[in-house]
Structures are given as structure tokens and as C-alpha cells.
What does this fold into?
Amino acid sequence: MIKAVISFKTIHSNIRKLRKNLGDNVKICAVVKANAYSLGIIRISCEIEPQVDCFAVAAINEAVSLRSSGITKPILLFGVCEDFSAALENGIIISINSVEEIKALSKYIKDTHYKNFCKVHIKVNCGMNRYGIANVWQLRKILGIAASTSQIQVDGLYTQLAFAMDKVPEIEKELKKFAPFRSIVRAYYPKVIIHAACSNNLKHLPAQFDMVRVGKILYGGYEGYRTAIKITSRITAIQHLKKGATVGYDGTEAAAAPATCAVVPCGYADLIHYNYSNTHNVLVGNKFCKILGRACMDTIMIDVTGIRKPLGRTVTIMNGKKGLGLMDIANSTNTIACNLLCSFHFDRCKLIYKK
It folds into this structure.
């Protein structure tokens, strides 16, 4: 009854467009954490591997699942690595966020007599105040420990920019703070991969450096990129409302005049964000119909007044058309594209990956 179609063709198109917006030789790191923003880490990653240069995840089990599925390109682990054994065994790039972490990694390598190379990317805190070092003396200490452990290879240096393109002066301040870290690492490792920009700020060319990290942009979660997901359901029940009748929990919507209310099986336990309540419009035929009242766990109710024989008709909740695109919905429901994507639950729908 609920159907979701994920278009690989659209995702490929978005990556090609992204390439055109990047400087020469800038690599693409596909961020596929959180099950590729709920769309399926294995299916998405295996499909786009030829188009991207590396992947990034937030948990070691995500990295291991990629390797187990046959992904051979580099995989960067964000955050703190809690399982050096799994990371080293699978050739995962480890983020170093503190002096303590590089000490722990070095000790583990020496204690286990690990013989192969272990690549690390050093994380710098330039204002996000989440992970990363904030002082160059910490960087020098990390580089010293790495140099004393021959198996550790400093492969990258990066930061997470806290601001998007609407705040370029703030981005510039972050990049200015990042500059001395870049200079120091480049002096010791000329081929180090430096990266800072993500989907929200990659248009700022000075932030692109050697690589950009992108997630939501792959699926249309940024202005100018096409929505890669189509969600439909159908009308299963009709209620005829008198003037003043309320709809849904707590009666947040009342009919201003006699109206026809349709029930659509697809709720916030499926592919509906709770913020759709009283705001989002869906499409029945060629007519936009407003969601009435609060979104329920299993259903939404919509206004189909004026539509002939609505029972059984297809309802389009998301697609690439104006008003139903990922960014259109994020903007109209006062949320962000990442939150919208990660709210999807495909357990009760028919999920199709379309070439």
C-alpha cells in the first residue's frame, strides 16, 4: 500500500552535478552514516562506489558492514574509534580527535605487534565544539606520536564547519583558525588530504581543499539537486465533515465549511515526518491536498473536497515535482533535509531501488 522508489539514476545525476561544482582534482567523500540517512547503506554505497573516492561513517559496525559487502575504497570513521581491532582488520581510516586517542592507538599497535599501515585523519575543532583538537601544540604532540609509531600514517586533516553558505564571514573565521593546522601538517606530509566542506558549504570554493564530504546532497537534500525518492500511498477511507468538525488528535484542525476528509495509510512510523501535521500538502491526481490535523503513527488525513470518487486513489507524498521535493518539504515543515531523511522507516512499505 505504501510504496517508496529510490532512483539511482537521480543519485548518479546529483553526483555528476556535484563534480561540476568542485575544483579540479577535488575528491568526493560520500557520507553514508545512519544507514545512508535511512536509505540503505549497502545498496546506496555499492551503487555509487564507482562515482566517489571514499566513504565516511560514524560507527565501526557501519564501516565493517561496508567492507563485508565488498566496498574496497577508503572508509573514514568519524568520531571516536571504540574498536581498534575491527578498524585495523578492515583497513578503516581512524579519526584522531585528541592526544589521548593517538596515544591509545599507538599503544594498541605496539601491544598487538600490528605490522600493516594504519591511516588516520586528524580532526580540528574550529568552532563546532564537538570533536577535535583546538591547539597547535596538541597537533604537534599527535604528529610526534605518529612519527614514533611507524605503522601510523597521517593521511588526512579535517574540520567540521559549523556554518552554511548564508554565513560566509563565519565560515571564513573557521577557515582562518584551520589555517595554521594545515600549514604544520603540510610541512611534514605534503600529500595529506585536507577537507572541510560538506553539503551546506561546498559552494564556498576556499573550503573545498582536497575533498568534500557529502550526504544529503546525493538524494536532493540541498537546493538545486534533484529529489531521488518518490513516496506514494492510497486513500482507504472517507469521512464527511460538517462545519466546525475537528480532525485528529487534540482537534488541531477544524473544518471552516463542510468538507471531505480522506484517510491515507502512511504515518510517522512510516515515511511521514511529524512536522507534516497541518502544514504539508500531498498530491491526488493533479490537485494538492492539505494534511488535516496531526500526523498519526499509521495514517494522515487529507482534505479531498472537490475530488470525484477519491476512495482508492493514489496519493503522492514526495517526488521531484515542485512543492513535493525534499527541500520543498523541509522548508515548508520547518525542519532540515537530514532530519527528514533520517525519519524514514521503510519496514512497512514496498521499497524499490530503481536503476
Remarks:
- The chain has two domains: 8-219, 229-354.
- The chain is about 30% helix and 25% strand.
- The chain has a mean pLDDT of 96.
- The first strand starts at residue 3 and ends at 7.
